[in-house]
C-alpha cells in the first residue's frame, strides 16, 4: 500500500458497477476486472489493470493507475480510477476514453475533506525535508522548474507512490559505484587504493611462483 493512510480501509474490499452487459469490479490496491453478463459460451472476463501507482498533480493524489491488465492488441489494458467525494463507497461511472484505456469514477466520503488527498503529509520527515529543500532551491532560482519536478518525481518514487522505471531501478543498483567516482579527487583516491591492491595480489602470486600475465588495462 502507498498513499493516504485513511484510504487503506478500502483494501480487501471490492465494488461493482453494471453497465449494459458488462459488470465492472474495482478492488482498491488490488485490481479492476470486467465480466460480460451474457449467456454466450465465450463471454469476456478479464483484468483491466493491476494496482500500480498514483497519479500526482500539484501536491494532490488525483487518481490511481491500474496497469498491466490483459493484453489488448499490442499493449496491456490499463485503468485510471478517479476518487471523488460521495456519501458512500461506490463505483459510480465507467468509460473507455481510448482503446484499452479505461476510466473509473469511485465515490467515497474518505476524500471529502479538502486535505484528504494531499501528498506532503503522507511522506516521511526525511522526504518532507527533501521537498522543502527543493522548494527553497526553486525559490532562490538555483534550479529550474524542470529540475524541481525531477526532484519531486524522485521523492514520490522513493515513497513508493510512483513506480520507478526498469532503467531507474538499474540506475539505483549502480548508484553506489557511480557515487564513488563523482569527483576527480575520489577517482584518484580509489585508483591509488586499487593499485595497492593489485601490487599486493601480484606479490602474493610471486610468492607462490605463479606468473602474472595481465596488464593495468585489464
TrEMBL record:
InterPro entries: DMAP1-bd, Gtb1-like, Man6P_isomerase_rcpt-bd_dom_sf, MRH_dom, OS9-like_dom
Main localization of the protein described in the UniProt heading: Golgi
Entry keyword set: Coiled coil, Disulfide bond, Glycoprotein, Golgi apparatus, Secreted, Signal, Transferase
Sequence ranges assigned to domain DMAP1-binding in this UniProt record: 119-218
Recorded GO CC terms: extracellular region; Golgi apparatus
Transferase is among the record's keywords: yes
SUPFAM superfamilies documented for this protein: Mannose 6-phosphate receptor domain
Transmembrane segments: none
Superkingdom of this protein's organism: Eukaryota
Localization (cell): Golgi apparatus; Secreted
Domain (MRH): residue spans on this chain: 12-114
Entry's Gene Ontology molecular function annotations: transferase activity
Coiled coil: 156-204
Task performed by this protein: Non-catalytic subunit of the N-acetylglucosamine-1-phosphotransferase complex, an enzyme that catalyzes the formation of mannose 6-phosphate (M6P) markers on high mannose type oligosaccharides in the Golgi apparatus. Binds and presents the high mannose glycans of the acceptor to the catalytic alpha and beta subunits (GNPTAB). Enhances the rate of N-acetylglucosamine-1-phosphate transfer to the oligosaccharides of acid hydrolase acceptors.
PANTHER family from the UniProt entry: N-ACETYLGLUCOSAMINE-1-PHOSPHOTRANSFERASE SUBUNIT GAMMA, N-LINKED OLIGOSACCHARIDE PROCESSING
Subunit structure: Homodimer; disulfide-linked. Hexamer of two alpha (GNPTAB), two beta (GNPTAB) and two gamma (GNPTG) subunits; disulfide-linked. The alpha and/or the beta subunits of the enzyme constitute the catalytic subunits.
Protein name: N-acetylglucosamine-1-phosphotransferase subunit gamma
Lineage: Eukaryota, Metazoa, Chordata, Craniata, Vertebrata
Amino acid at each position: 500500500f502507498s498513499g493516504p493512510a485513511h484510504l487503506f480501509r478500502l483494501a480487501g474490499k471490492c465494488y461493482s458497477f453494471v453497465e449494459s452487459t458488462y459488470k465492472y469490479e474495482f478492488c482498491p490496491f488490488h485490481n479492476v476486472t470486467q465480466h460480460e453478463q451474457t449467456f454466450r459460451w465465450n463471454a469476456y472476463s478479464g483484468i483491466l489493470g493491476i494496482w500500480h501507482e498514483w497519479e500526482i498533480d500539484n501536491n494532490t493524489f488525483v487518481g490511481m493507475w491500474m496497469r498491466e491488465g490483459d493484453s489488448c492488441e499490442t499493449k496491456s489494458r490499463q485503468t485510471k480510477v478517479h476518487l471523488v467525494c460521495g456519501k458512500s463507497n461506490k463505483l459510480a461511472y465507467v468509460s473507455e476514453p481510448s482503446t484499452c484505456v479505461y476510466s473509473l469514477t469511485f465515490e467515497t466520503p474518505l476524500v471529502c475533506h479538502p486535505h484528504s488527498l494531499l501528498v506532503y503529509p503522507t511522506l516521511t520527515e526525511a522526504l518532507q525535508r527533501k521537498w522543502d529543500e527543493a522548494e527553497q532551491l526553486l525559490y532562490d532560482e538555483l534550479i529550474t522548474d524542470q529540475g524541481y519536478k525531477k526532484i519531486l518525481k524522485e521523492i514520490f518514487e522513493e515513497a513508493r507512490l510512483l513506480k520507478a522505471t526498469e532503467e531507474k531501478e538499474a540506475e539505483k543498483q549502480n548508484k553506489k559505484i557511480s557515487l564513488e567516482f563523482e569527483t576527480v579527487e575520489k577517482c584518484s583516491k580509489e585508483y591509488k587504493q586499487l593499485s595497492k591492491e593489485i601490487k599486493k595480489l601480484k606479490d602474493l602470486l610471486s610468492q607462490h611462483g605463479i606468473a602474472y600475465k595481465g596488464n593495468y588495462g585489464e
